[in-house]
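Today's session is about reading a structure prediction critically. Students often jump straight to the picture, but the first step is always the sequence itself: look for stretches that repeat, for charged clusters, for runs of hydrophobic residues. Only then move on to the predicted structure, which in these notes is written as discrete structure tokens rather than atom positions. Here is the chain we will use throughout the hour.
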Amino acid sequence: MLQVDDDWKAQAQREKEKLAEREKASQAAAKPSPATAATKSARPETSSFAGLVQSLATQCLMMMGAIADPRTGRAAQDLDYARALLDSVVMLEEKTKGNLTVDEADIIAGTLYELRDTYVRAAWMSRSTVAQ
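Below is the predicted structure for this chain, in token form.
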């Protein structure tokens, strides 16, 4: 059974690396002008499917305490809210099934893998801390 878990983790890591390479390539292809760069920095990019998924994932990770709130510089944890955001990404995957490109399906699958893994770890750590 350990071998299965290791294979699963290795496959997930390969998918994560593949997604990162695609994201890097798409960012390099879309170099904004100075005028649009200023506008983009003022609001998050959600006009694309990948941007929407990334926005939800970032909020979810913040609620899990995995990344710090950029406004305060501190990590906070609200696992109930994190779970609601995670459920929203799951719903998005279910509602868009059959309507996504291969890249978009890979993005949401990889994102959900990472979010679920991080959520389980955060919940486990939270329970361990409460038990002490």
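Discussion point for the tutorial: The chain has one domain: 2-131.
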